[in-house]
Amino acid sequence: MDLDPEHVRLLLMQQGYAVPDEDLLEITASLNALVEGMADLSRFGPLQEEPWPILVDYLGEQHAG
Amino acid sequence: MLADSYAFLSLSEQSRLIRSGELSPVALVELYLRRIDRYNDKLKAFITVAAGSAMESARRAEGEIAAGEYRGPLHGIPVAVKDQMQIDGMRVTGGSRIYADHVGTYDATVVARLREAGAVLLGTLNCHEFQVGPTRNFPFGTPRNPWNLERDPGVSSSGSASSLAAGLVSAALGGDTGGSNRGPAAACGVVGLKPTWSRVSRHGVFPFLWTHDCVGPLARTVEDAAHVLKVIAGRDPLDPTTSSEPVPDYLGAMGDSALSGVRVGVVEELVSDPTSQDAIDAMRAAFGVLAAKGAELIDVSLPLTRETRFVSQALTKPEAVGYHRRNLQERYEEFDYNTRVGFMVGAVLPAGLASSAQRARVVIARQVTDALKSVDVLVGSCTAGGAPLITQRQPITTKKEALEKIYGEKKGQGQYTRIFSMAGVPAMSVPAGFDRDGMPLGLQIAGRYFDEATVLRVGHAFQLATDWHGRTPPLA
To answer: In chain B, which residue's Cα lies nearest the Cα of A65?
Structure first.
């Protein structure tokens, strides 16, 4: 189900964003497209991994200390 | 007065001449300032030119070197940084109207390290607003490609790449989140490096996506990029995400040009549709050069490359909006149209999807790191083809248009670089030919975590066997 511009306007207003009408169409279209694109995540498998930034010990010295 | 040819010497060669007293840092800065004055109106590569402080620094460097206080390869070398990095006393805008009058009150760590190495700061370089891109209306002029002024110099470290190609500076810094150093480098025919995430400090750098942002060098040669990386890399107490992994001797690791024993993975998805035939041909020729140097070529597939387009948007948009929240609430219309509508999508994207994107990212990263268990580097095209014409996308009004124009596979420039950004591994673009329109093409080389040395070694060997990096654009 797609959101319409009024739904999106309300969501933005709830967060303190006042967006002009001319922007709202693209925001809505882009949001609906992105939600659709992310709807089927089966191509990535079961998504069991934790969402860490990268595979290195980036805490470095903090860990060592 | 120095001849213009000095402007295109490699940093390494300029450095050798400066150290031996055959080249004056003051004369070199004067040369670049003259060229900036001559070409910047067309290219819009620089936002701020710090002529006075640059001349002062050059005189100081010249005096120090004459007195035997030589600091190293960057001493007396003119550099410039993307207008994303804080500089004490200089205007730093993030490429945005929002910060058009902002003057830095401290140096970003990378800037401080350049200064400590004796580099001469020429100014700040034009970029897409807050490194997001594509910016629609550039507040400081539309950056243009020196190879063809009607063409795009790439997103988002545009000025960093175009200034080098046009011979306006010896080396530059850029910020690379999803390809912002490598894409412009490929488009302009220079070298652009994204180090391993956490290799270089981001303290004092406008963030875009904290979990991806990297600062790295752009230069005319791989050797030059190695000199700059050596100076800026390493642990910074002011950026707790920087690694304490020791910084190796990159120059020493380059060795000679032989690549015997190096296993090179040719990534099928980076040399196939939607890559242009010209780019595919150039890459095949480049792989042949690596093989002739002794490298073993192995076919590799990273099937999730094309899936990065949705995942990256679902990662970047929500994360980026957080940093700019107050300005978006209070000064919304001062943001560029493309920036602000993208940020607003991030503001309302369901949190569950953003979280899923983070997990999908790990799967993508795992695919890259698994591939790097059996090869030393991965290679492919850095872009779909040569730089496109500068155009202004019309506002999008339907989901179908958005799927095609924002997320479409054919749009595709970003997927070539994002795959390695999402993995956090080092990756670099090296000039590797031209398309039929005379626009540069870039060979991308990616390596294992913290193994910039091998990436640089392969790129350096390629440059010793080719002369693509020695070509200069007609403008210059």
So the answer is: B244
Q: Is the CB of B243 less than 8 angstroms away from the CB of A30?
A: no
No. of helices (H) and no. of strands (E), chain B: 16, 11
Distances (CA, A) of A45 to A59, B76, B314, B329, B364: 29, 53, 18, 38, 11
Extract the tokens encoding B458.
């392969």
**What values do phi and psi take at B241, rounded to 5?**
-85, -5
- Residue A5 gets the label, from left (phi > 0), alpha (psi -120 to 50) or beta, of alpha
pLDDT of B172 > 80? The answer is: yes
pLDDT score of A65 more than 50: no
Q: How far does CA B326 lie from the centroid of its chain?
A: 29
Cβ <8 Å between A60 and B235: yes
Give the pLDDT score at B408: 74
What pairs with residue B191 in β-bridges?
B219
Q: Which helix (H) or strand (E) holds B46?
A: strand B46-49
Residue pair B80/B51 in contact (Cβ under 8 Å)? The answer is no
What are B78-90's pLDDT values in tens digits?
999 999 999 999 9
Query: Cis bond leading into B156, ω under 30°?
Result: yes
In the sheet that B214-219 helps form, which strands lie side by side, from edge to edge?
B46-49, B120-125, B78-82, B171-176, B214-219, B191-194, B427-434, B440-447, B377-381, B263-267, B296-300
The pLDDT of residue B410 = 59
Contact by Cβ (8 Å): B430, B380 = no
B363–A49 C-beta distance less than 8 A: yes
Assigned token pair, B46: 């620089």
What residues form DSSP beta bridges with B48? B124
pLDDT tens by residue, B214-236: 999 999 999 999 999 999 999 99
**SS3 state at B424:** coil
Q: Which of B317, B321, B359, B373 should be substituted to probe chain A, the one whose Cβ sees the most A Cβ atoms within 10 Å?
A: B359
User: What's the one-letter identity of residue B63?
Assistant: G
Entry pTM: 0.96
How do residues A11-35 score in pLDDT, each as one tens digit?
999 999 999 999 999 999 999 999 9
Going by C-beta distance under 8 Å and a sequence separation of 6 or more, which residues neighbour residue B377?
A: B262, B263, B264, B265, B445, B446, B447, B454, B455, B458
% of residues, chain B, pLDDT over 90: 90
Helix (H) / strand (E) element for B278: namely helix B277-292
For B374-418, the pLDDT digits (tens) are 999 999 999 999 999 999 888 999 999 999 887 776 555 688 999
The single residue listed with the structure tokens 């004796």 is B118
Provide the 8-state DSSP code for B196: P
What is the pLDDT, as a whole number, of residue B367? 93
User: What is the share, in percent, of chain B residues with pLDDT greater than 70?
Assistant: 99
Task: State which residue of chain A sits closest to B364, comparing Cα positions.
Answer: A44
